[in-house]
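Listing S7. Sequence submitted for prediction.
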Amino acid sequence: MSLEMLSMDALAHCTLCPRRCGVNRLNGELGYCGAGRLARAALVSLHPWEEPCIAGKNGAGTVFFSHCSLRCLFCQNAVISHEETGFDVTEERLAEIFLEQQERGAATLDLVTPTHFAPQILAALRMAKSCGLTLPVVWNSSGYERAEIIRAAADEIDVFLPDLKYIDEKSASECSDAREYFSYASAAIEAMVEAKGAPVLREDGILASGVLVRHLILPGRRKESMKILDWLWATFGDTIMLSLMGQYTPMYRAAEIKGMNRKLTTFEYESVVGHALDLGITRCYVQERGAASEEFVPKFDGTGVIR
């Protein structure tokens, strides 16, 4: 897929995500994700809780987009991903938001859940860059991507920050209604690494280019997490960075999934971290156990979206 195929015309028969629902978003139809013609954002902030190489001293310049192509029953951001809270913005306003984040001193421009708005975001990025945007651009996604989209967008993106949620089809199906999640996410991450290569860190520790894969360890699924680490290490070695997250907090409809209505135990988290060490993984962030709290969920009140 060429960059031209990520123009606004792509919304006339939308196949941006693996759902490929084919709706005409230019004529007011809504995709499986819930998105229409305009990008919708719910919060623009300086976010201090991203990985240090993304947040820096001042925080990551996050732009949280509404809607999502996954249906994670435990989503901590369900108010925007499922309930569609947010404000529609034009590409011109989106470009202004990107520049405003730079003016606030953000370490990076952190685009959170961007895939279903790829044409709008890329158009806004080109506008913003023509007006002086120089921040590293971070594509912060669920990992549920088409590799073709990644390849088409790669020249405009500096850092890919994908989740890798599942490797087992059963988990992907019952938790996110996406049985084929790993087949898409693995191919997408391979495309990301092919496009960006090994991580490049600036002197101030900010990730200027590369791939940082996040994995949220889920209760009762530590062995699946170990299988994910096995695949990442065998496939990429130390050419990627990792972030092992232990912050799972049962939210939204998590209680509908057997065994998911509790936080992660210390044993579960530490056993996965230990497996990473045993494999020889060194480029890996770990979390303090106190991060598992609703206090760390942003307040999606529209701050910074509309002037």
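Caption to Listing S7: primary sequence and predicted structure tokens for the chain studied. The chain has one domain: 41-296. The mean pLDDT is 94.
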